[in-house]
Amino acid sequence: MNNKGFTTVEVLISVVISSIVMGAVGSFLVFNVKGFKETKDTIDVQYEGQMVMNQIVDLLTESCGIEDIDGTDTSTGNTVAYESYETAIPSSLVIKQKVDSAGVFVEKEYKIKYNSAEEKIMVETDGVTYELGRYISKFEVSPTRGSYKDTNTLSIKIEITKNGKQVLLENQVKMRNK
Known about the structure:
By secondary structure, the chain is α+β, with helices and mostly antiparallel strands. It contains one helix and eight strands; from the N terminus they run H-E-E-E-E-E-E-E-E. It has one domain (39-174). The strands form two sheets. It has a five-stranded antiparallel β-sheet with strand order 1-2-3-4-5, with helices on one face. Strand 3 and strand 4 (120-125) form a beta hairpin.
């Protein structure tokens, strides 16, 4: 007798073995996709934060100092005075730069605005407003010594939160034209 083909037991055993192998491969892939998404979210938050910090540092480095600040004192919750010595959560920060325009230095004003409700930092200059960054859950600016009016160095803290990932960036900026 010539028996060709597989018996029912052989087919069942091969299906069970295939299912075990496919389950192991599937769980491996799911684990790696989740890990990739977590890593990507972390990198995205770090990148967004670094971009915002770099742009603010560039603006402040070339500035002649802070012209005005509106915001809230972090320790008292009171409105910040321009001559205040306290750390501030600015709703707006006005700086001026001297820009070389064909050999003539002209002042250019930048207004950095933080909207905590929308978690955005915007910059307004020459009547144009553009978004500097999103997902900003915290934005603090403080003079390293003295008041905003007197200091030439500022401490900046930016906290970015997106998809449960959080990054805190801190920097000190010396305003070289003050």
